[in-house]
């Protein structure tokens, strides 16, 4: 695949595209084609297969054969992944190893690992007792499923909004329904009186109840609730970000009954025309998003603080004294319950911190501070 002897584009220009295509598991040949078609000025630059491989390996991106993993080399990573994904099958495990551990592992190696270390899960899968979940969409930007603040941030970044949004019937989702509908009506007055949101009757919310079942977390204890928020919310956000990145860059299993395109979601989203897919996006401007944000979101509301700032500073100090351990699914309850909570109970300065800060908070914050102090004294 010659490059017509033209110079290679600057590395800082093509490296991000190579990394993005690597995450979607494209072959080197496909990478070269996509780079030439969409990201390189072919009048001035060129790139061939040999040069791409050289650049890729220089970036530390090694293919499956180069990494040469065995069931022994993936064992420790599999033990950790099973804590979070106990039912993941071969396809999902291969994707998890690639996106979360930077390990490119052959299907035969994962299959052999299952046969040696997890034969009971293989039998469960072959018994056909597992249910497959389906998600339907007519095309790109047909629908989004987000909460209001994330939704507005997302469409502001993209510069367009979807045809429709979707959520369960919880009252916390009225905001996104109103915002989506108002934005559409601003661009198409004929839609006045018509809701541009879809309500789903079944709720799929899950509860992190392990700590409650073990007696580590009392949801009615305000102090424990504050520490729980400080530890869990950032960790869950990182997990969700990693999940989004993995799912958007992983091709779905082929389905002969599916009429929509078969490929990596991020590639379909970026270039729906390449896959004969429809794009339902509605282009918007920043001013419209700002008006809706001002109308439906109170940026000063306490809900936008994980915990009151002064308490957050104190929890951070306790966390720093622990050595700032990385929060994972295996230690998140340990970090939340043992060191942080007990250090805060032993150091009797929470009340002082809150009493100084109380005048600058809403009455809700002042009441929260008094509640924490009362529970602390009684406890």
In short:
Helix content is 54%, strand content 4%.
Overview of this protein structure:
The protein starts with 10 loop residues before the first helix and ends with a helix. With 379 residues, it is mainly α. Helix 6 crosses helix 7, helix 10 (174-187) packs antiparallel against helix 14 and helix 17 runs antiparallel to helix 18 (363-378). The strands form 2 sheets. Strands 1-3-4 form a 3-stranded parallel beta sheet. The protein has a two-stranded antiparallel ribbon with strand order 2-5. Helix 10 (174-187) links the parallel strand 3 and strand 4 (197-200). It contains 18 helices and 5 strands.
The proportion of strand residues reads under 5%
Biggest pleated-sheet summary: 3 strands, parallel
Number of helices: 18
Q: How do the strands line up in the largest sheet? A: 1-3-4
Rg over CA atoms: 25 Å
Which residues sit in consecutive blocks of at least 5 with pLDDT less than 50?
348-354, 356-367, 372-379
How far is it from the N-terminal to the C-terminal residue, by CA? 73 Å
Shape: globular
Rounded mean pLDDT score: 81
Helix/strand structural class? mainly alpha
Question: What proportion of the residues is helical, as a percent range?
Answer: 40-55%
Order of helices and strands: HHHHHHHHEHEEHEHHHEHHHHH
Strand runs, count: 5
């Amino acid at each position: 695949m010659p490059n017509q002897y033209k110079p290679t584009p600057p590395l800082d220009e093509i490296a991000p595209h190579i990394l993005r295509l690597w995450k979607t598991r494209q072959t080197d040949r496909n990478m070269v084609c996509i780079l030439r078609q969409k990201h390189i000025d072919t009048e001035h630059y060129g790139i061939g297969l040999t040069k791409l491989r050289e650049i890729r390996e220089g970036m530390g991106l090694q293919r499956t054969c180069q990494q040469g993993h065995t069931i022994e080399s993936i064992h420790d990573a599999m033990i950790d992944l099973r804590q979070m994904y106990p039912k993941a099958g071969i396809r999902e495990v291969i994707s998890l190893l690639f996106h979360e551990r930077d390990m490119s592992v052959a299907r035969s190696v994962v299959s052999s690992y299952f046969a040696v270390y997890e034969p009971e899960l293989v039998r469960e899968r072959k018994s056909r007792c597992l249910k497959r979940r389906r998600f339907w969409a007519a095309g790109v930007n047909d629908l989004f499923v987000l909460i209001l603040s994330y939704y507005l941030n997302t469409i502001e970044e993209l510069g367009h909004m979807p045809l429709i949004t979707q959520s369960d019937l919880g009252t916390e989702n009225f905001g996104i329904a109103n915002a989506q509908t108002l934005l559409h009506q601003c661009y198409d007055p004929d839609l006045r009186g018509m809701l541009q949101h879809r309500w789903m009757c079944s709720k799929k919310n899950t509860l992190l109840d392990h700590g409650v079942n073990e007696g580590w977390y009392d949801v009615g204890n305000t102090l424990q609730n504050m520490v729980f928020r400080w530890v869990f919310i950032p960790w869950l956000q990182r997990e969700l970000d990693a999940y989004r990145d993995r799912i958007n860059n992983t091709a779905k299993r082929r389905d002969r009954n599916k009429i929509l395109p078969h490929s990596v979601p991020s590639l379909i989203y970026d270039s729906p025309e390449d896959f004969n897919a429809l794009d339902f996006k509605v282009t918007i401007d920043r001013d419209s998003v700002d008006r809706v944000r001002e109308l439906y979101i109170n940026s000063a509301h306490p809900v936008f603080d994980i915990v009151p700032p002064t308490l957050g500073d104190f929890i951070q100090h306790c966390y720093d004294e622990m050595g700032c351990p990385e929060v994972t699914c295996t230690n998140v309850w340990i970090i939340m319950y043992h060191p942080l909570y007990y250090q805060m109970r032993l150091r009797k300065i929470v009340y002082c911190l809150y009493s100084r800060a109380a005048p600058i908070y809403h009455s809700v914050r002042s009441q929260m501070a008094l509640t924490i102090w009362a529970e602390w004294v009684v406890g």
